[in-house]
User: What shape does this take?
Amino acid sequence: MAGKIKAIRGMRDILPPETGRWQAVENAAREAFALYGYRELRLPLIERTELFARSIGADTDIVSKEMYTFPDRHGDSLTLRPEATASVLRAVLENRLDQGAGVKKLYTLGPMFRYERPQKGRYRQFHQINCEALGSDAPELDAEVILLLMEILKRVQLGTSRLLVNSLGCPECQKKFKEGLSLFLSQKQGLCEDCLRRRVTNPLRVLDCKSVHCKEILKDAPVLKDYLCPDCAVHYARVLSLLSRFGVTYEEQPRLVRGLDYYSRTAFEVVAVGLGAQDAVAGGGRYNGLAQELGGPELPAIGFAIGEDRLLEVLPPELGQEKNRKIFLAALGPAARDQAFSLLQTLRREGVPGEMDFGERSLKAQMSLADRLGAAYTVILGDRELETGKATLRRMATGDQQEVSLSLLPMVLAGL
Ligand code: ATP
Ligand code: MG
Assistant: This one.
């Protein structure tokens, strides 16, 4: 009987062989990160609520309704991290990783938690691959970070996708833009309830509304690009020209904002074709003011997050499948089983994956086990084989069999 206790809604088990595809994505990401000079951080999954409330912004979806927040036994308010950037910055400042010359390049992988309505591509525990580069406002760094993202997506063979880019300007540009946008919105009827509130508290958030009706109204809204100061405009133009130089195809998306308040200047998103409504597989941008917001020094920075769950939904099923070299040792009788156990350890020392059954099952039962385990070859060992000094080697896909001398067996199997 199946157990009675089930996983929590919106949280799922990721099982083999699917986990092999996850490893392939993470390995590809790790290799690309290394190539670009990044090193890994491993961070706690729980932080003080304050960290997220202060950085992400009170009027964002995340902080207003999506956080898993609870008091610990001591009464402190804690939150399961809904995103990684705030935690990365907390760790950087706390451990003084920001000191010294040069850009600090860090990445981290792991689960995030948001209390959202579960549906395809939207889970309450989901997984991100996060990249953060701190210590420079140079447009070259923006371009490099986007190139790195595209490199990872290429290595995992992501099919048709679109890179959307925008500039959110500096706080000065944003201030002027918000005034223009507020004025525009105040003249519009029919905004959703959330946007009526955001129009006053945080008009930029209106641009991120998912309501079809609000989107329609926003079609004529002012765009950030028209509000960029000369410095921000030059920065943005340089980022775009570098992307072009390195052959990255992008689309300028003048109404792209991110779901968190701390972004400035470059913002970007990658949307995949074939994912339906939840089509953003990665998003990122600059967050030049965040370190100071958290009480730290001036530390201009940029990063991105890949949504691993969604990405895997569009990647080819065969991703991560390596050549199958698995050997199953089918042994009949105690002497053969003993011999097989030694052979098994020899194979593993040679780096050949192998398995056997320690029970006393029939040959037929062992062959079906070999099939179930996905063995490429099975070695059959019984009393007769021990006497003649030859084992039977069976290729599972075709059923072809041949005899191999026991002394040569490890060498033959290692070469398959
Ligand atoms: P969306 O607009 O789809 O809600 P978001 O702007 O909230 O996305 P970010 O905070 O930018 O998402 O997170 C980066 C990426 O993480 C997203 O592009 C997406 O791929 C993934 N992601 C975000 N929320 C979820 C979720 N609940 N389940 C699965 N993946 C998610
Ligand atoms: Mg969201």
About this structure: The chain has 15 helices and 16 strands. The chain has two domains: 18-170+229-312, 327-414.
